[in-house]
Amino acid sequence: MDTQREALHFVLEHSFRDDAFGITPELLAKLGHDSWFDSGYTAMRDFPIHDLILNVQAATMTNLINPTRLRRVLDNEARVPANEDALTVPEMLETIRIEVWSELDSPNGRFTDREPMISTTRRNLQREHVSRLIDLTRGNGWGNASGQVIRQLARQELHEIRDAIEDVNIRALDPYTSAHFADCVERIDKALDANFLQID
Asked: What pTM value is reported for the model?
């Protein structure tokens, strides 16, 4: 099971962290390209760095957090004797949450518009994570026995994220992060309320 955990941590560290992409202002200045027109006019085309990074991270999230993968992990737990180590669905979801929301571990500091608590790429990642968990809580099209377990665990993860956000001093945040947190909490609350109404 150590190999599975090492693989999971490797994927998270090399897909979800800002420094994994090696993006700097100097590099971005060179990634766009000039377009030449007959009049001699040139224009720099923007390089959609945030979209490209989110595409990579969303694809990784799809591979990690999807009903089929989680069902396999859950089924694998049953194949391993209870007194032996095994990677579990709760452990997997918690590991992903801790990595995606690592900024909440040390929220103290002085944050500004130019130096926000959470970078744009990380805010995009966190929003994507919330969306995936919300999708899992709905359980559309996979309301079988394992699906019910995964739905419950996904709801618990949303509660954990919401609680962690509420522990942060909103007044000390930059506008970007403050708006991001407010949006996440609103989406989580709506999802949990709607999910509560549809629970059998």
From this structure: 0.85
